[in-house]
Design brief:
SH3 type barrels, 27% strand, 1 helix, five-stranded antiparallel beta sheet, single chain
């Protein structure tokens, strides 16, 4: 026979340091993913939720569908009534508001 059988050599055990060093790249990758992807996405979601909760009548908004309008009625069930033209009102979910274009001033107490 021309080819001799190859036998695997036993790996030297590094103890606790060897096990720790083998998991270090995984921990490092998770840390990078957290700070570059997960954390900014959570921050943006929190800001969007605060923006949507602060909506009130008279605010000019942009929906995710690209419709500009003025909030004419705010319901407690998560539905807004948005006036997109004179006399034309549509009902949209609060979560579909992408951006508040201009805010109205709060009403003064009489």
């Amino acid at each position: 026979m021309l080819i001799t059988p190859a036998f695997a050599q036993a790996a030297a055990s590094g103890g606790a340091f060897g096990a720790l060093s083998s998991f270090m790249p995984l921990v490092l990758i998770f840390g990078i993913m957290y700070f570059l992807l997960i954390r900014p996405q959570q921050k943006k979601a929190k800001e969007h939720k605060a923006m949507v909760e602060a909506l009130r009548r008279g605010d000019q908004v942009l929906t995710q569908g690209g419709i500009l309008g003025k909030v004419s009625k705010v319901n407690d069930d998560g539905v807004l009534e948005v006036e997109i033209a004179d006399g034309v009102k549509v009902r949209v979910m609060r979560s579909s508001i992408a951006q508040v274009m201009s805010k109205t001033e709060p009403a003064t107490a009489a």
